Amino acid sequence: MDRKKFIRNSILGIASLATATKILESCSKSDNDDNGSESSSDGSCTVSPSETKGPFPIKTPSQLVLENIKSDRIGVALLINLTIENQTKDCTPLEGVLVDVWHCDKDGNYSEYGGTSMQQTDYTSVHFLRGRQTSDAKGNVSFLSIFPGWYQGRAPHVHVEVLTSSGSSLLVTQIAFPENVSSEVYSSTNYSAHGQADTSNTRDNVFSDSLSDELATLTGNLTDGYTLSKTITVKA
Asked: How many CA atoms lie within 13 A of 142 on its CB side?
């Protein structure tokens, strides 16, 4: 996928992005940043941590082949750039795999679920902040979204599943956010009513033993939006 062309074509779907030019600059810079990959100069890398898929996984991912997963959700713009690499082939980019992402909205609610003690707001009939893309020749996929909120007992996060082209799961993992960025976002207008996250990354039951391997790199700001960059390594 040509990420710059992708952003130009999709930019109108994210109202909180001030200008296409600024976010493109942010994206270009992040392409050269350390994006959390475990790769090293000798070609060695380790498989990304395997984490729980629930409790709100995508119910119909094949029907959600989307680049812009924002839907009607309000929040700070977030461009999610993921690179998938293959540990069994010297950490080379993995082309043609399916990459599913999903996360909660600014108030901590997931689409496709609700009306229960775990999530009182009923969003069972809608499908925001969920999507699927196929990795390109460089192992890249991109999604236009919003910065996720948080819910009780969990640090802010994004879920990711990587699958073969035939749908067999290669890895389910999660991505953590730098706490200084999350704190700034949660103090902003659209998020402040929900307050600050009640669980830090180090106290989170998913990230506490693997944070260094699951922490994303973020660039950007509240006005123009943020770019998340992360390399995910699977054994394929």
From this structure: 22
Token pair listed for 213: 């391997």
Measured CA to CA, the distance from residue 232 to residue 236 in angstroms comes to 12
- The total number of residues shown for the chain amounts to 236
Q: Token pair of 161, please?
A: 């599943």
200-220 tens-digit pLDDT: 999 999 999 999 999 999 999
The answer to whether the Cα torsion of 106, 108, 112, 113 is positive or negative is negative
**Run of H or E including 223:** none
Among 211, 77, 62, 50, CA closest to 143: 77
Upper half-sphere CA count for residue 37 (Cβ side, 13 Å) = 25
Average pLDDT for residues 67-86, to the nearest whole number? Answer: 98
3-state secondary structure 3-72: HHHHHHHHHHHCCCCCCHHHHHHHHHHHHCCCCCCCCCCCCCCCCCCCCCCCCCCCCCHHHCECCECCCC
Give 227: exposed, middle or buried? Use CB within 10 Å, 0-12, 13-18, 19+: buried
